[in-house]
Protein: 16661_t:CDS:1
Amino acid sequence: MTIANIDSISQQQSPPLYSERDDNINNNSFVVIPPVAVIHISDSHEHSPANSIITSEYPPSYSAVFKDSPPNYSATNSTIDPSLIIEPFQQQRWSKIKRIYVCGFLFWPFWIVGSFYIFSSNLDDRSWARKCLFNSIIFSSMFSYVIVTVVKMNSE
Structure:
């Protein structure tokens, strides 16, 4: 074997390391992509990639990085005033008459049915029954006004 053959075999086994300073690349030259990652690490403050080179098949480990770690919110270091803690809201079931009132917006005769609960002993039911009564009166008067207007328009 000649020295030229040995050089070509060694070039195939370990590809050349490229840096940012290699500006004299020939367009006709054959570029070999290295099979391993090439990481430039700077030991000095100048951040020069030529200072040291580490080759590895694995990416760097970030397990020891604490620079941008989130703050620690432990319960033992808490300085929250206990008087500011609010108890969770207990949802109450709607009463029957309240559901009738809300359904009256979809089908207005529910308001007429709900207005009969005005004689209930529960104060909350009576307030919703009063709302049903007012809405049924307003809707009935508007409905009767439209009927009278349509009848008068057709009679002329």
